[in-house]
Design goal:
The protein has 105 residues and is mainly beta. It has one domain (3-100). Helices cover 0% and strands 53% of the residues. The chain contains no helices and eight strands. The protein has an eight-stranded antiparallel barrel with strand order 1-2-3-4-5-6-7-8. A hairpin with a 2-residue loop joins strand 1 (3-11) and strand 2. 20% of the residues are buried.
């Protein structure tokens, strides 16, 4: 079952919010900005995740298997972290929540 680890609000084309975990709470405000790809079919991310002046992740637009909802698949990573966090940013009412679940790896 997925755990909510963040709350974000859509502010134009960007998302602003915070990641709420014991280790990442000190990040403060987190911004998810659109990234301008070099070509539409490139594997480059659709979004860059930042905390202050630091890039801490990237994200790709995805659609659920049933094709009904869009979400952003995020990878949050930084040299001080033991491993990357993979999470999904999904809309819930008037906000977006960041969901994480431990992988089986």
């Amino acid at each position: 079952m997925a755990m909510q680890i963040g709350t974000f609000y859509n502010n134009g084309e960007r998302f602003e919010g915070s990641i709420e975990t014991r280790k990442l709470d000190d990040l403060g405000a987190v911004i998810i900005d659109p990234y301008e790809k070099s070509s539409p079919d490139s594997s480059e991310p659709d979004y860059i995740v930042r905390s202050g002046r630091y890039q801490i992740g990237r994200g790709w637009k995805q659609t659920t298997k049933d094709g009904q909802r869009e979400y952003i698949n995020l990878i949050i990573d930084d040299p001080h972290m033991d491993q990357a966090i993979r999470a999904r940013l999904v809309q819930q009412g008037g906000k977006h929540i960041l969901l994480w679940e431990r992988s089986d790896d």
